[in-house]
What we know:
Layout: H1 21-52, H2 72-112, H3 118-127, H4 133-147, H5 153-176, H6 181-189, H7 194-205, H8 207-222, H9 226-230, H10 240-250, H11 255-275, H12 277-285
Amino acid sequence: MSTTTATPAPVTPAPADPRPAAPAKRRWGATVAGVLILCVMLFPLYWMLNTALQPESGLLEVAPVPHEVDLSGFTSAIREQGGHLLTSLAVAFGAVVICLAIAAPAAYGLAQFKLRGTRTIVFGTLITQMVPGIVIANALYSAYVDLGLVNSYFGLMLADASLGIPFAIVLMRSFMVAIPTEVIEAAEVDGAGRLRTFVQVVLPMSRNCLITAGLFSFLYAWSDFMFALTLNTTDDVKPVTLGIYQYIGAHVGDWGSVMAASVLSAIPAAVLLVLAQKYIAAGITGGSVK
């Protein structure tokens, strides 16, 4: 009796699934769209730099690409606006110190102390950012005249710091709420008081958030124009925003120098943003997960 063995039929490999190619196409599309949006957003900056490098050309005669690099506009801008740039740096850094000195303890108290009406206080802090700047500037001018703070560095620092304090309080509170209470209790068990715990434990843990709040406070103060115009009646304290405003009126035919001054005023903020970008990302998202 013979036994026949059935030979298995050959297995035909399944055709490759073409669907994985779709995500790659979407990624390319998103990349192209992002590049186009970035070009549109950066075009004013490019045109500002392009005009600054062609100081001899009229505003309507600027070539799309400079044929020769002429730095005379920057030389003129540094000579006439260099002091105002230093004033803006001093005022902006002073505003950052004042802002963090007020906002950090306030945020810590709202985050860790069981205070009544915490949500109301936070909501009221957000409401203050909706008040028009001209209203605040006019009210501050009357108070500054009585206090003798008009035309002073400290007065302008204090006014500019008020622009960033509400945002800094809300941002740092959302981060400090996520700090484990066990860490604070352990420091208090070791004999540290509330002030020492705040300075030596909470602030080092909140480094990213402090840098983020400080950077935004710097940008608020650096770009301020309303307080600089309202609270200064002389040229003793003139930030670069006010300097460029007056510079345009005096050099309306020399747009190369005006644009050069604008480029120089954008450099400090751009450098700080590049150096602190990783801290900004960590500081903004740090309080989102507990």
